[in-house]
Design goal:
735 residues, alpha+beta, Jelly Rolls, 5 domains, 7-stranded mixed sheet, 16 helices, 40 strands, 25% helix, Cell_synthase_bac, cell inner membrane
């Protein structure tokens, strides 16, 4: 039996003991003691699953020696404590032999288990050492190995011995919020699903604009933001996540929230204040907020009303409450200055506060380029702009840590992602990927094979010369391989060499040089989603109907997801609110959400649940009725804009990020795009022609040969005629 099974009973008791201890703590004490405990408690708890990091399906490790590494995010430069990883896994052993699971953290082995059964559970919990991680990640290593025979020269391949790692494996830790002293650190401390607090269901255009820009910046950073409106009296909230300490149930506002598990209608401002005070123990655990007058007033009134109820519990409770509010409930007591981004605390949680109207500058500051410079608690952002690409080349290191050296036994890769809008513009887009690489030979004197992929398209591959010298590989980027957001994968493959069968495979270095870059080429953007995304790299308009501002949490979430899908940024956009029944008037590039068609000649007509798609005025491609919860996207106005329209009475809620890449028309449901086509070229014949890798000479070889033959024939005929004329002239002279 594996070691993890022998320790299973104590591990199963841990959650029970933890719950008992927590319930005892929360059941004891008076209101004064509870507020004092909240004031003194500076720990912030975090948990994140592998699924939240993008792992959609189980990871399978098989064979003789298989390893994977996961980067678990933590606040950069902030000590963490009580960190654990719950590994949820199972194994199969059809090939027998010795199977071992080794778990490590930051290259330090933590635990190892040996398995002898044919199949079983490999789940276990491991402790992670505390301390700072300057790079903002804990590296979790999982190694699965199988030895079939003790004979050194035997075949050790074991395809039937496999480990299955489930996406619900969970990483938990805590950190001291007092160690978060800068906006850059606070950003790195955000959870995978941060909460952005706004004043209510209806927002002013300025607050709506700021919330949208901050939300898009979060999406581009890989976060799935949740827009939360501060509950007003008469609104309904879900109490499923609410935990009220027993010591506070004597206060009416807390008592109204205690014991509930369903919907609850807010009866007083004090109940809103109680939800704010509960923080992460309720639905208002806030990570970011938009500082606007309406939110300042509503929060102040809610906490004042709750304070009046607390004062009935005695002087000790009043003093403890006042102290708690001073340190945990007053992030907006002082209004933000214009263009200010600052760090505060709300209910024990660090919050990033963005001034109303500072959205564009905050988006620039909190973007990937300038975020490391946000080294302060209170910053006035006069300017934070991303510089334009001037010389036609962008280093790959601009998109992440690509350059460097790796020791490779069999396989190694580097991954970098970039938004098309961040590098394109002024009629230029990525046309070539240039890699400068070097490699050392293995024991057999052989070099590795380098493969270059963009969005899962293989652009090129080459066996490298193994002499340590730098070799430049340039591969062209076909236009169809581009998307609004792109992923570059650089893969090195070696054939492990063992001169003698008992030799152990040894890694040998390969290097990607810092000079590796993207090369931009001139070209027409095109009238598809990629072309429209290139246009969004510069100044553009964002058009929304005025009704969207009256349902801000729902419409903002949708607007942020769809903006990110086409590569829009919060830096260069201008929000325009379109009144009901009016057609927008806009010049330049734009994104439109549920607004009437402009002068660009839309091919899509939406009326409730009816969808009509035309190729031209005389040809209808699609005519459907009875559709619900769909969104259609269309490139309009000759590629200048992208229009999103809702089909049915409600728009779909799309939980996973996606990108629009192909065609000029897309249908989107809860799972993302279900259809992407080019209405002008439904069979993609143009794509097949543009994707032809043959050169102009190769494509038209027979025509070139025929032309050369005609020219050669004409030259020969001219020469023959010239010779005949000379002979005739000579004959005349002689006669």
């Amino acid at each position: 039996m594996p070691t993890s099974h022998r320790a299973a009973r104590p591990r199963l008791l841990l959650p029970t003991v933890f719950c008992v201890l927590v319930s005892q703590v929360w059941a004891a004490g008076s209101p004064a003691e509870q507020f004092q405990e909240w004031t003194a408690d500076t720990w912030v708890n975090r948990q994140i699953s592998l699924a939240a990091l993008g792992l959609r399906s189980p990871v399978v490790l098989s064979g003789g020696d298989s390893r994977r590494e996961f980067f678990l995010p933590v606040p950069a430069g902030v000590p963490i404590d009580a960190a654990t990883v719950q590994i949820n896994a199972s194994y199969l052993r059809a090939d027998g032999g010795r199977s071992t699971l080794l778990l490590s953290a930051d290259d330090v082995p933590v635990t190892a288990n040996r398995y002898t059964d044919d199949k079983g559970d490999a789940s276990q919990r491991i402790d992670i050492a505390g301390g700072e991680r300057p790079n903002g990640f804990v590296r979790l290593g999982i190694g699965w190995s199988s030895v079939i025979s003790d004979l050194m020269c035997a075949d050790q391949r074991a395809p039937g011995n496999a480990l299955r790692l489930n996406p619900d494996s969970l990483f938990q830790y805590r950190y001291d919020r007092s160690a978060v002293r800068t906006l850059a650190t606070a950003w790195s401390a955000l959870p995978a699903t941060p909460v952005l607090l706004v004043s209510g269901k209806s927002l002013s255009p300025q607050a709506y604009d700021t919330a949208w820009r901050v939300g898009v910046t979060l999406e581009r950073a890989g976060k799935r933001v949740r827009i939360q409106a501060l509950p007003a009296v008469g609104t309904t909230v879900d109490l499923a996540t609410v935990r009220v300490p027993d010591s506070l149930r004597g206060i009416p506002a807390f008592a109204a929230l205690a014991g509930g598990s369903g919907s609850h209608r807010i009866a007083s401002a004090a109940e809103t204040g109680a939800l704010l005070a509960l923080g992460r123990n309720g639905p208002l655990g806030t990570d970011l907020l938009i500082d606007e007058p309406a939110l300042r007033t509503a929060m102040s009134q809610a906490l004042d009303a709750l304070g009046e109820q607390v004062r009935t519990s005695g002087e000790a409770a009043t003093a403890a409450w006042d102290e708690w509010r001073k340190h945990n409930g007053a992030p907006l007591d002082v209004p933000s200055r214009q263009d200010q981004v600052r760090l505060g605390v709300l209910a024990g949680n660090p919050v990033i506060i963005v001034a109303q109207g500072a959205g564009a500058r905050a988006a620039g500051l909190l973007g990937s380029l300038w975020r490391p410079a946000a080294l302060g608690r209170d910053l006035t952002v006069t300017s934070a702009n991303t510089p334009a690409v001037d010389n036609g080349s962008v280093l790959l290191d601009q998109f992440g840590a690509v350059s460097g050296t790796m020791d490779i036994i069999a396989r190694g890769e580097r991954v970098a992602a970039f938004d098309l809008g961040a590098v394109a513009g002024d009629g230029r887009y990525p046309s070539q990927l240039v890699l400068d690489v070097a490699s050392a030979p293995n024991a057999g004197g052989e070099g590795p094979v380098l493969s270059v992929l963009l969005n899962d398209y293989l652009l090129g591959a080459e066996k490298l010369e193994a002499n340590g010298n730098t070799r430049r590989l340039a591969v062209n980027i076909p236009r169809y391989a581009l998307a609004a957001r792109n992923e570059i994968r650089i893969v090195f493959l070696r054939q492990p060499t063992q001169i003698r069968c008992h030799d152990q495979p040894t890694p040998y270095p390969v290097s990607i040089q810092k000079s590796s870059h993207l090369r931009l080429g001139k070209g027409a953007p095109g009238d598809d989603f990629v072309g429209a995304s290139i246009g969004l790299a510069g100044d553009h308009a964002v058009l929304v109907p005025d009704t969207w501002l009256k349902d801000a949490p729902t419409s903002l979430a949708r607007m942020i997801r769809l903006s990110d899908a086409v590569g829009a940024t919060g830096e260069h956009a201008q929000l325009k609110v379109v009144a009901s029944g009016q057609k927008p008037d806009v010049s330049g590039h734009f994104i439109a959400f549920d607004v009437p068609s402009m002068s660009g000649g839309s091919e899509v007509a939406v009326d409730g649940g009816k969808l009509v798609l035309k190729r031209d005025s005389n040809t209808t491609l699609l005519d459907l009725s009875g559709l619900q919860r769909l969104t259609v996207a269309e490139v309009v106005d000759g590629g200048r804009g992208i229009a999103f329209r809702t089909v049915g009475s409600e728009a779909p809620d799309v939980p996973k990020p996606f990108r629009l890449a192909r065609g000029n028309f897309a249908v989107i449901d809860e799972g993302g795009p279900t259809l992407q086509i080019d209405t002008a070229d439904p069979t993609s014949a143009r794509l097949a022609d543009e994707g032809n890798p043959q050169s102009m000479w190769e494509r038209h070889m027979w025509a070139w040969l025929a032309l050369i033959g005609v020219i050669a024939f004409m030259l020969m005929a001219a020469r023959i005629a010239q010779v005949r004329r000379r002979r005739q002239d000579r004959a005349r002279v002689e006669s």
